[in-house]
Amino acid sequence: MSASGELASFLLVPENGSKSQAVQIDHRQELVGKCGGIPSAAKVLELGCGQDNCTIAIADLVSENGSVDGIDHERPGDGKLSESSNGR
């Protein structure tokens, strides 16, 4: 399983949706790289994190030495991975 495929397995999507999520994770990480990247130990605040699809891609980039906190206006437990995703 690819790294993005492994990350996609953590998202709350039907099993058959993991492949498309893996493609989206790769795409998001590519876009971040084109914008100058994120240092591996960065602390990132993501506003409007939605279903955590981008949060998990960023968390992989900052590794276990960094952190990503996602904030969204939805209630906790409405299908999100977590309120905060630290490292991998």
Q: How would you describe this structure to a colleague?
A:
The chain has helices at 3-8, 18-34, 53-62, and strands at 43-47, 67-71, 84-85. By secondary structure, it is of the alpha+beta class. It has one domain. The chain has a 3-stranded mixed sheet with strand order 1-2-3, with helices on one face.
Topology, element by element:
Blueprint: H1 3-8, H2 18-34, E1 43-47, H3 53-62, E2 67-71, E3 84-85
Parallel strand pairs: 1-2
Antiparallel strand pairs: 2-3
Helix pairs in contact: 2-3
In DSSP terms (H or I, runs of 4 or more residues), the helix count works out at: 3
From the alpha-carbon coordinates, what is the Rg to the nearest angstrom?
A: 12 Å
Strand element count: 3
The description of the largest β-sheet is: 3 strands, mixed
Category by helix and strand content? alpha+beta
In short:
By secondary structure, the protein is of the alpha+beta class.
From the structure above, extract its key features.
three-stranded mixed β-sheet, alpha+beta, single chain, 3 helices, disordered C terminus, 88 residues, 3 strands
